[in-house]
Amino acid sequence: MSHTAVVLLSVIIAGVARADIAPADVTTLLSAHNAARASPLPQLTWDDHLASIATQWVNTCPSGHSADSLRQGASENIGWGWPTMNASEVASEWIKEKDNLVNGVCNAGAVCGHYQTIVDPKTLSVGCATKQNCPSQGQPVTQIWVCEYGATSGNSSTPTNSTSPPPTSNSSSATAPSAAATTLASMRRSIPITSGAPTGYMQQSSSCT
């Protein structure tokens, strides 16, 4: 996994099969998310309903966010890595955005939305899914991770930020609008190569309030 690239996408917005995700990945994702949530923030719990929504979307090999009609008001983080990316790596990419925040304000031109979603005090539950061997982001083989975040514990989700606008989409299977794809493409950059770490990544995020 020494030659991997990562794409990250986050959005906050105001029927279902069980998620196909390994128990070890559930443990890894929950541990990473909760380690990022300092007291007195409540610890997140795993939500199978949110995980099943994530499964529906990731199984389409998406290039952007799902429609609000599928998310049912949940927030969503997405990560793409090629050729593969494990649960620890995608969580690390999201959480390290903390370094872009100064006194709660995101540095100009930086990305903070994935981390802000994870530590949102209104978020109480999370469910994720992953799919390998997807053609996406201009790559023939990627591994995609989708995490959905809800404001209730248990198997239902309510908006964590009902004032944020929904994505432009005409159906539950639509991908993000072309403007988002353009933003993603324009923000590609490289980071130093480290064994076991991504060699580059792209990010696009809506603001979090």
TrEMBL record:
<feature type="domain" description="SCP">
    <location>
        <begin position="24"/>
        <end position="158"/>
    </location>
</feature>
<dbReference type="Pfam" id="PF00188">
    <property type="entry name" value="CAP"/>
</dbReference>
<dbReference type="InterPro" id="IPR001283">
    <property type="entry name" value="CRISP-related"/>
</dbReference>
<feature type="signal peptide">
    <location>
        <begin position="1"/>
        <end position="19"/>
    </location>
</feature>
<feature type="region of interest" description="Disordered">
    <location>
        <begin position="155"/>
        <end position="184"/>
    </location>
</feature>
<keyword id="KW-0496">Mitochondrion</keyword>
<keyword id="KW-0732">Signal</keyword>
<protein>
    <recommendedName>
        <fullName>SCP domain-containing protein</fullName>
    </recommendedName>
</protein>
<dbReference type="InterPro" id="IPR035940">
    <property type="entry name" value="CAP_sf"/>
</dbReference>
<dbReference type="InterPro" id="IPR014044">
    <property type="entry name" value="CAP_dom"/>
</dbReference>
